[in-house]
Amino acid sequence: MIFHRSILSSLIVLLFLCAESIFPLSFADDGDTEELAASLVDAMSDEEALAQTFMLGWVGAEPSPLILDWIRDRHIGGVKIFGWNTGDTLSLAKTVGALQQASLGGKLKIPLLVATDQEGGWIRHVKGATSETPGNMAIGASGYPRDAYLSGYYIGRELALLGINMNFAPTVDIYTNRSSTVIGPRSFGNNPVRVGLLGTAFMKGQQAAGVIATAKHYPGHGDTDMDSHGVLPRINVPFETLWDRELVPYRILAKENIPAIMSGHLAFPNTQAALTPASLSSWFLRDVLRDRIGFQGLIITDDLMMNGATIWAGSLSQAAKLALLSGNDIIMLSKTPNLSDPVWTSLLSSMRRESDFRDRVRDAARRIIAVKLEHLRGETAVPYIPDIKKAETGLPDPEGSRFFLDLAVRSVTILKGSSDQSQAVFPLTQEKAGKVLLAGQYLDFFSTGRSAYPGATGYWYTPETIEDLLSYARRADTIIFCLSDAEGLNVLRNLRGLGKRVIVFSVLSPVYFDQVPWVDGAVAVYSYAPESFVAGFSSMLGRIPAQGQLPLQ
After folding, report:
1. Predicted pLDDT at 419
2. Smallest Cα–Cα separation from 147: which of 406, 394, 399?
3. Helix axes 355-375, 316-326, angle to 10 degrees
4. What is the pLDDT of residues 422-444, one digit of tens each?
5. What's the fold here for domain 44-217+240-263+292-304+314-398?
6. Core vs surface per residue 135-152: b (16+ CB within 10 A) or e
7. Measured distance CA(402)–CA(466) in Å, rounded
8. How far is residue 352 CA from its own chain's centroid?
9. 225 confidence band (pLDDT: 50, 70, 90)
10. Are residues 421 and 441 in contact, defined by beta-carbon separation less than 8 angstroms?
11. What is the sign, positive or negative, of the torsion defined by CA atoms of 40, 41, 46, 50?
């Protein structure tokens, strides 16, 4: 009897082992998300856990053999799509499918996070057939959370067709410093609560399309005119100011369970972090974001190859280690390193020598897998392998195109010269305008302007051709000047004193209009999308009401 029982026990063990080999642990398994995430990470080697924290970019339209090696051999957790990868939209969809197939071939069958920057408006890394949109500041000017929701939804729906399952948006930086050329119209405005509410609506719309939202640039990039790509900006405000201003959107979004936040390479000398970049500061990431704000999702670095991080840390390898130790879960590198790269070698060595660092990396991997399990599975999840035919027929999104035109119309803002002001300029009919000179630097400005004012002369200005511009201006009755940057502002100043009607057509950030109060009228749109030019000229002609309110108080 004992003999038979021992045989039976052996058979049971053998059957169990066979079942394990036939049905191994997999990302597709059912079960509690947190428990399955922990089990998957337990089944990983240190190398595989570390690889989940890597999000790599590559140069060129086609995926390099090197990025494929990182996916097949190292099983990295994610890839980042930049503008230089997106010349052909359908080719991009095929690339994403090939990368996901390589990732799903791993023993645990874990898909990649495929991320990009598709904020809308000015920042649109995936170009090609995708929609050009009015952008965040246009949403701020319309003021409707539904506009934010639908912007996120339609942008997300287009990304989903291409297999892109994560978007580094919404941008919830407060437009505090009007001299900022890094944020500008990427912001919803300078009211922290409104930015938080619009950012939340954008997030919910994006996630309704199946795309993981990522708020940025924590703790806030809006109060500096410096660019963290080249330097480490220093923002000299006390923490109390940050808490009541820049951190308000993150406090709102954390309560609404945003799944990811991007840390920025920004220094705040008047806080406990001192000169340590926020992206490498455990005080900013753990004490404030995790403990005080209560954020439970993923923390992702901005590109670690930016000078704002590497110069302070001393090397890319050291920046990567500090990023993970301080609380980031994903380190992003815009270029694909060699497999023998010092960053990988150094981090893996640290895992083997330092138990605390090893635990931190494995905890980060668990968080990453948990977010993947929650968002990359189910009916609303983005397909791993894009359907090329659906991408071909669905881009740009037909419903989205109609919506974005409506948003452009709702956001047009008359800055000066409206009918309820003392010196009304608008509506500016053809008869009232007389001979029109269109001065600008956008093809859509000229084509739309000529449709609005048939017979208008167009002149593409540069700082070197001011005398020619003045020659044309002297022969016009009305000059409509497209203003979008400081260079254009300097050209515009030369038109003062000519005795002509000067109208500013403000594109992108409207802050430059503050410097030219002498102009006769001004209309603001917030992107260079064709729909924005159509809306702006239609408003000038009086065909549509200008309902937008300047989102800068």
Report:
1. 65
2. 406
3. 70
4. 568 999 999 999 999 999 999 99
5. TIM Barrel (3.20.20)
6. bbbbbbbbbebebbbbbb
7. 39
8. 35
9. confident
10. no
11. positive
State which amino acid sits at residue 469.
L
Tell me the C-alpha distance between 34 and 514, whole Å.
Answer: 53
Q: Which of 78, 49, 37 is nearest to 362 (CA)?
A: 49
Q: How many residues does the chain have?
A: 553
DSSP-H helix ranges across 376-397? 388-394
| 263-322 confidence digits (pLDDT tens) | 999 999 999 999 999 999 999 999 999 999 999 999 999 999 988 888 899 999 999 999
Q: For the chain, give me the number of helices (H) and strands (E)?
A: 22, 16
Cα gap 172→220, rounded to integer Å? 8
**Bridge partners, residue 440, by sequence:** 460
Tokens 């997106």, residue?
86
Beta-sheet pairing, 123-124 with 118-120: antiparallel
- Cβ within 8 Å of residue 196, ≥6 positions away: 172, 248, 249, 250, 251, 252, 253
Rounded to 10 degrees, the C-alpha dihedral 40/41/45/50 comes to 130
3-state secondary structure of 502: strand
**Could you tell me the pLDDT band of residue 61, with boundaries at 50, 70 and 90?**
confident
Residue 479 bridge partners (DSSP): 437, 502
| Pure H helices in 264-387 | 282, 307-313, 316-326, 342-353, 355-375
Are the C-beta atoms of 133 and 120 separated by less than 8 Å? yes
Residue 331's DSSP bridge partners are 54
| E strands present in 254-321 | 260-263, 298-301
DSSP character string of 64-91: PHHHHHIIIII--SEEEE-GGG-SSHHH
On the 0-12 / 13-18 / 19+ scale of CB atoms within 10 A, 67 is buried
CA 521 to CA 104: how far, in whole Å? Answer: 58
Query: Chain centroid to CA 58: how far?
Result: 18
Query: Using an 8 Å Cβ cutoff, are 544 and 412 in contact?
Result: yes
pLDDT band with cut points at 50, 70 and 90 for residue 231? confident
Domain range summary for the chain, segments of one domain joined by +? 44-217+240-263+292-304+314-398, 412-540
262 forms beta bridges with 300
Write out the CATH class of domain 412-540.
alpha beta
In 402-520, DSSP assigns E strands to: 413-416, 436-440, 457-460, 478-483, 501-506
Catalytic annotation, residues: 229, 302
Which one-letter DSSP state was computed for residue 314? S
Q: What is the pTM of this model?
A: 0.94
Q: How many CA atoms lie within 13 A of 397 on its CB side?
A: 23
CA-CA distance, 307 to 318, in Å (whole number)? Answer: 13
Query: Exposed/middle/buried for 109, CB within 10 Å: 0-12, 13-18, 19+?
Result: middle
| Residue at token pair 């080719």 | 91
Sequence-distant (≥ 6) Cβ neighbours of residue 288 within 8 angstroms? 219, 247
